[in-house]
Design a protein that fits this description.
BUG, 2 domains, 11 helices, globular, receptor
């Protein structure tokens, strides 16, 4: 086993810091980190270099992060899915054994979106269509076992309908598939579709949150709960590191990340993109992580979607092994 013990020079950081982003370029975790990277040198004394490692519903990138040396030179963009994926099977990064939360950045509400030229005006319309045309409705999402995939499966189970899930490696691909008509429905964070909504190309039917948004463009979108379905998903973003980070490094990173997140330009750019900023330091973020783990584990168990998602993941792995795609 590789020895991950390290000696940290007092002048840390003495070189650029790599941030692993487990989705394709253009996704919300990617954009959030790139916004922060513009201010990194100012507050950390070194730049942040972004490297995209998509695949496996983000597990490929997170597994790589967990296996990296805890020397402060490899960080990772983390999100709600990092909790969910552990509920479907073994991963290398299971918290708290392999990763350390550093900073909670903010959150993005999940929405159900369709093309504006479709006849569906609300969730009831969508459910009625799916009931009359079993298996005809395809929904896109950002990877097997991801939070948005879980929302789609919760929707199908609670509504009692048969819809087909189509996984992608990032939000850009999900929205492109919807726009081109390859899928008829997308479960995605709202920032990914806001420009399409603004241009009247996409209609948002429901919000997976406790309350409606105050954002003008989405303030009239009802929640799933308002439409009779108990579907809530808090899609948060953050920064983490491999477990075993020396305290001096952890403290420097935490202070630097806090300063970056509160930088005026970063705040503006995050708001423009639609990220609802809420900074939490290592201790607070850890507490949130543990609380969310308990909450989501309960939700996944009660809805029974874990078994369905595991079957889908196994089927996908079988296809890949068989060389059919």
């Amino acid at each position: 086993m590789e020895d991950k013990a390290i000696n940290v020079p007092e002048e840390y950081p003495g070189k650029p810091i790599t941030v692993i982003v487990p989705v394709t370029a253009g996704g919300s975790p990617d954009l959030a980190v790139r916004i922060m990277a513009k201010a990194a040198a100012k507050y950390l004394g070194q730049p942040l270099f972004v490297t995209n490692v998509p695949g496996g519903g983000a597990t490929t990138g997170w597994n790589e992060l967990a296996g990296s040396k805890p020397d402060g030179y490899t960080l990772g963009a983390i999100a709600t899915g990092i909790i969910l994926q552990t509920l479907y099977g073994p991963v290398k990064y299971h918290y708290p054994t392999a990763l350390a939360p550093l900073a909670h950045i903010g959150s993005l509400p999940v929405v159900a979106a369709v093309l504006a030229d479709q006849p569906w005006q609300n969730i009831d319309d969508l459910v009625k269509f799916a009931q009359e045309h079993p298996g005809a409705l395809k929904f896109g999402h950002m990877g097997l076992g991801s939070p948005v995939h879980a929302v789609g499966e919760m929707f199908a189970k609670q509504a009692g309908i048969d819809i087909v899930q189509v996984p992608f490696d990032g939000g850009v691909e999900v929205v492109t598939s919807l726009a081109e008509g390859h899928t008829q429905l997308a479960f995605i964070d709202y920032s990914q579709v806001k420009d399409y909504v603004k241009n009247s190309k996409v209609r948002v039917l429901a919000l997976a949150a406790e309350q409606r948004l105050t954002v003008p463009l989405f303030k009239d979108v009802p929640t799933f709960k308002e439409q009779g379905l108990d579907i809530v998903m808090d899609l948060w973003l953050g920064v983490g590191a491999p477990k075993g980070l020396p305290e001096v490094v952890k403290d420097k990173l935490a202070a630097g990340l806090e300063a970056i997140i509160h930088d005026a330009d970063v705040v503006k750019n995050m708001a423009d993109w639609g990220i609802m900023l809420e900074y939490l330091g290592p201790q607070e973020f850890t507490a949130k992580w543990l609380a969310d783990n308990a909450r989501l584990a309960k939700a996944v168990k009660e809805t029974g979607i874990a078994e369905r998602i595991v079957m889908q993941k196994n089927a996908a792995a079988g296809i890949l092994v068989g060389g059919d795609r």
